[in-house]
């Protein structure tokens, strides 16, 4: 795909920090403040709270995790997420999050998920033994007796062969659902029933996680043994929906998909049709922007003037390929979002109308998302600083130092329940972060006043007269010239200050794809360069040897109301916000300090953590669109 | 040639080589057992059930035939692989079978639920784990260091004096600070809730504040705050009946771990384990490899 990239950093309208003088009279104690109105009251908040969580973690029940030496269970994964300390079986060490998550979904691979004996099944040979009869009696005393017997007899009378029965796999799935439900505490901590469909035709990663809204969950999972084609996954999803199991899927690691994540053709090699696009958008609602195997936003080759491209893209080989680097086109999220609106114009439907989430994909039943509290993600292969920074520390051929900390998904929802979190992700009112707890509001509308983010009714007004992240701009009022976006970010109190907020715009013009990154708010009263318009870097306070930094630079919160200066009502467009923190030490730098050695030379010693919002889309009225005879910006997608 | 570097190609080559070698060297597979492959009615019924659960309809004749053929193919290959001994010393299969046995032992705990007395004893022993934490109801007023710079702490102190001496209504108090995304008033929050909102330092500070007066400056990852704690609800220990389910679950986990250890110890006792000393050269090489 040919993408012409332009960039301006000229701020059109930047509102600096909230001014207390204006704000002072506005907020009585106990009433709703602009950011999280009602958030303290305990009841559902119509203006929504943000809930941070994990939508992608593997445990001992994933065969690859098991092979890495992981022995921690789904139960451990949920407890760790909640903030409890758990003992890593690989190291014997206790680990604990500094800041707990609000929700979590364990997504073990559907393929070979665990094994569980069906001891109480009627045709189980164990039933006819003394032990079996004791257990079946339901008498706890007898059960205990039976158990002791088995313990001492080392499972005599238990034929191993019956465990190869496919029924065993189903029973594991039942167990997985049970553990997931056990940890779901409405109002306090949410879990979602989920699994991973591990499709990877010829090492091209097409993995999707599938999530369910109900407590029962589907009777069967869908695995890559059933099919490696995404169309078949959609069929599975559609049927489960009919059977009462509302669901959606979320793909990940488009960065190593060899172009398969945003493909120019269907799995059958045919041209993408409107129906295909609609099915895609109906079943797949979001995509992972970042996770431990790299960030998929964009790379310099696609976005040469984006100063913040190529973030955490150290991991780049196709999974298990032994060093094959995949195709760029079709592998990155920003390009995919822009391709999507091009297809919307060409076909009338957008197959890649995805919200943004981020995740761990850690295979050790824990999500070490905190840079300063990282303890590996792949069992024995990266369990200690020595192994991680050592020359032999590698996972599937890639050095452990190339992996990123698990990333984080934030969901705006009225309350912390399974239904609300599910609905929030489905509505794409989500954003991803590289693992920190940045709070981010992002709205789009046509007549937001310049001082919107300063007013006490900011959120209420923004909802009432516009749409939040993940939405479509409302119909353009006749008089409106351009859409206006309101954005507000607050730092993670345990991480660095904020450097800047940017709005990334992608659009199609006469068949060509374009993108542009706008700085819309920044810290420390910096002045953009008069000639180039580019904003000077925020600076760097990191002491690499000590792995420390100070918050002397950057701001606690940033906000802006920004109007698109290049808006053309006939062009399809997509906008998302990106928030950048000041530099802080990368996990490798903390490890190097622990070992008393220099940080590795081939990864940056510092990292600018960040957040990416779900997009807001603009789709022109049909009568406005003049389709060009040819779409150079969609070349591989054409007939 | 690029093809030669593909792991799949390696795999196929190695597979073919193993197959050839075994074909030449191994004993022929016993006719009477290997020759018959029964696809039982129960198996077919199972295939149909599994299909229905996934696709919400029974398989067509063609699909069922496909399932049966797939089953036959897998069984044939599986049996041949076993006959060739391919399961021996395969790291994945070793681990897999070991895992199966571990799971088997672990899950047996689920089948022997605790007696009431056992659970009560367990609950008493771990009472601390179930103690519900204090909840704090508080108001905070935020002072933005990006806006106020060096004057932030002094400003906060000045406002605090105003609040204390003039006994300003709590409702008006928050209007004296700076705009902030979080709320001013938070009812009934545990220390963990406060940590999620304001960071760990602030959460620890709040837990030490006496109710009924203004405190500060209190620092957080955001900046400077004045804090008024309205009330602190006492930590309390629940009775078993309230949290029976959770305690039973914890009992099961702990008991499972204990029994698993016992299970392994019993098995381990049956073996005389001999650990051979590697050659000195190899030891050296191994230790060098481990040095980063």
Enumerate the spans of chain B where pLDDT stays under 50 for 5 or more consecutive residues. 1-32, 283-292
Which oligomerization state do the chains in this entry correspond to? heterodimer
- What fraction of the residues of chain B are assigned to beta strands by DSSP? 5-15%
The outline of chain B comes out as: elongated
Number of strands of chain A: 28
- Helical percent range of chain B? 55-70%
The Rg value of chain A, from CA coordinates, equals 25 Å
Structural class given helices, strands, pairing of chain A? alpha+beta
Mean pLDDT of chain B: 80
* Total count of helical runs of at least 4 residues of chain B: 14
What is the number of helices of chain A?
A: 13
Q: How do the SSEs of chain B run, as a string of H and E?
A: HHHHHHHEHHHEHHEEHH
In the predicted model, the low-confidence regions of chain A spanning at least 5 consecutive residues are 1-41, 114-122, 150-170
Separation, N- and C-terminal Cα atoms of chain B: 34 Å
Helix content of chain A: 10-25%
Report the biggest beta sheet of chain B as strand number plus sense, adding barrel if it closes: 4 strands, antiparallel
How would you characterize this protein structure?
In chain A, helix 4 packs antiparallel against helix 5 and helix 7 (230-242) packs across helix 8 (274-283). Chain A starts with a strand and ends in a 21-residue tail after the last strand. With 639 residues, chain A is of the alpha+beta class. Chain A contains 13 helices and 28 strands. Chain B is an alpha+beta fold and 292 residues long. Chain B has helices spanning 7-25, 31-34, 41-55, 61-83, 91-108, 116-125, 127-130, 145-148, 152-165, 170-173, 191-198, 200-207, 244-269, 280-290; strands spanning 135-143, 185-190, 214-219, 224-233. The longest helix of chain B is centred in the C-terminal third of the chain and has 26 residues, at 244-269. Chain B starts with 6 loop residues before the first helix and ends with a helix. The interface between A and B is large, with 98 and 78 residues.
């Amino acid at each position: 795909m040919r993408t012409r990239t332009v960039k301006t950093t000229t701020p059109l309208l930047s509102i600096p920090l909230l001014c207390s003088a204006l704000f002072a009279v506005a907020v009585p104690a106990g009433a709703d403040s602009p950011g999280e109105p009602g958030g303290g009251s305990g009841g559902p908040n119509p203006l929504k709270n943000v809930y941070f969580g994990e939508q992608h973690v593997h445990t001992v029940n994933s065969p690859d995790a098991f092979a890495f030496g992981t022995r921690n269970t789904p139960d451990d994964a949920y407890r760790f997420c909640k903030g409890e300390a758990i003992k890593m079986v690989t190291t014997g060490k206790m680990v604990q999050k500094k800041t707990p998550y609000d929700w979590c979904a364990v997504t073990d691979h559907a393929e070979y998920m665990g094994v569980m004996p069906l001891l109480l099944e009627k045709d189980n040979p164990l039933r006819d033994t003394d032990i079996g009869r004791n257990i079946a009696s339901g008498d706890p005393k007898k059960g205990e007796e039976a158990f002791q017997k088995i313990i001492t007899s080392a499972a005599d009378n238990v034929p191993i062969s019956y465990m190869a029965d496919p029924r065993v796999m189903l029973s594991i799935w039942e167990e997985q659902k049970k553990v997931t439900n056990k940890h779901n505490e409405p109002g306090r901590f949410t879990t979602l029933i989920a699994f991973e469909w591990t499709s990877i035709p010829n090492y091209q990663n097409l993995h999707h996680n599938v999530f369910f809204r109900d407590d029962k969950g589907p009777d069967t999972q869908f695995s890559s043994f059933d099919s490696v084609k995404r169309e078949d996954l959609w069929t599975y999803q559609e049927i489960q929906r009919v059977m009462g199991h509302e669901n959606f899927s979320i793909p990940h690691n488009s960065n190593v998909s060899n172009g398969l994540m945003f493909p120019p053709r269907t799995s059958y090699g045919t041209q993408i049709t409107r129906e295909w696009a609609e099915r895609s958008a109906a079943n797949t609602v979001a995509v992972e922007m970042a996770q431990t195997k790299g960030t998929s936003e964009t790379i310099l080759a696609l976005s040469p003037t984006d100063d913040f491209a190529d973030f955490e893209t150290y991991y780049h080989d196709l999974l298990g390929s032994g060093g094959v680097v995949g195709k760029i086109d079709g592998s990155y999220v920003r390009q995919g979002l822009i391709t999507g609106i091009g297809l919307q114009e060409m076909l009338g439907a957008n197959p890649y109308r995805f919200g943004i989430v981020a995740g761990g994909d850690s295979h050790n039943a824990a999500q070490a998302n905190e840079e300063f509290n990282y303890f590996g993600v792949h069992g024995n292969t990266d369990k200690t600083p020595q192994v991680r920074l050592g020359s032999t520390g590698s996972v599937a051929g890639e050095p452990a130092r190339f992996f990123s900390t698990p990333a984080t998904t934030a969901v705006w929802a009225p309350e912390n329940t399974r239904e609300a979190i599910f609905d929030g992700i489905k509505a794409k009112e989500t954003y991803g972060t590289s693992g920190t707890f940045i709070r981010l509001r992002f709205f789009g509308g046509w007549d937001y006043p310049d001082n919107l983010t300063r007013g006490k009714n900011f959120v209420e007004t923004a909802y009432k007269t516009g749409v939040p992240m993940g939405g479509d701009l409302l119909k353009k009022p006749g008089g409106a010239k351009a859409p206006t976006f309101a954005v507000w970010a607050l730092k993670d109190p345990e991480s660095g200050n904020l450097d800047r907020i940017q709005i990334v715009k992608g659009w199609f013009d006469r068949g060509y794809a374009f993108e542009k990154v706008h700085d819309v708010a920044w810290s420390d009263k910096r002045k953009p360069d008069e000639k180039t318009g580019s904003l000077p870097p925020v600076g760097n306070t990191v002491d690499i040897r000590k792995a420390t930094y100070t918050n002397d630079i950057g701001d606690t919160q940033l906000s802006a109301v920004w109007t698109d200066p290049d808006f053309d009502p006939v062009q399809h467009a997509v906008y998302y916000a990106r928030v950048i923190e000041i530099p802080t030490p990368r996990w490798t730098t903390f490890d190097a300090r622990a070992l008393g050695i220099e940080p590795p030379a081939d990864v940056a010693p510092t990292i600018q953590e960040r957040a990416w919002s779900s997009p807001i889309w603009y789709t022109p009225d049909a009568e406005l669109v003049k389709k060009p005879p040819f779409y150079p910006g969609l070349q591989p997608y054409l007939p | 040639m690029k093809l030669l570097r593909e792991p799949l190609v390696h795999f196929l080559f190695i597979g073919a080589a193993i197959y050839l070698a075994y074909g030449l060297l191994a004993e022929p597979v016993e006719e009477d057992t290997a020759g018959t492959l029964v696809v039982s009615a129960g198996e077919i019924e199972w295939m149909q059930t599994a299909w229905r659960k996934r696709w919400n309809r029974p398989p067509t004749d063609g699909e069922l035939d496909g399932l049966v053929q797939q089953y036959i193919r897998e069984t044939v290959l599986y049996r041949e692989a076993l006959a060739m001994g391919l399961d021996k010393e395969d790291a994945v299969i070793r681990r897999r079978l070991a895992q199966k046995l571990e799971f088997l032992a672990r899950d047996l705990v689920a089948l022997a639920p605790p007696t009431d007395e056992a659970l009560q004893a367990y609950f008493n022993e771990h009472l601390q784990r179930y103690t519900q934490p204090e909840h704090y109801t508080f108001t905070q007023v935020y002072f933005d260091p990006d806006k106020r710079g060096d004057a932030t702490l002094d400003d906060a102190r000045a406002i605090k004096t105003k609040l204390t001496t003039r006994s300003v209504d709590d409702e008006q108090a928050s209007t004296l600070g700076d705009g902030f995304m979080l709320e001013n008033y938070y009812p009934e929050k545990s220390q963990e809730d406060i940590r999620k909102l304001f960071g760990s330092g602030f959460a620890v500070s709040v837990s030490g504040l006496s109710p009924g007066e203004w405190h500060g400056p209190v620092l957080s990852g955001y900046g400077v705050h004045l804090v008024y704690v309205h009330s602190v609800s006492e930590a309390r220990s629940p009775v078993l009946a309230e949290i029976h389910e959770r305690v039973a679950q914890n009992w099961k986990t702990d008991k499972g771990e204990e029994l698993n250890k016992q299970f392994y110890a019993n098995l381990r006792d049956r073996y005389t384990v001999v650990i051979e000393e590697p050659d000195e050269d190899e030891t050296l090489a191994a230790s060098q490899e481990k040095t980063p």
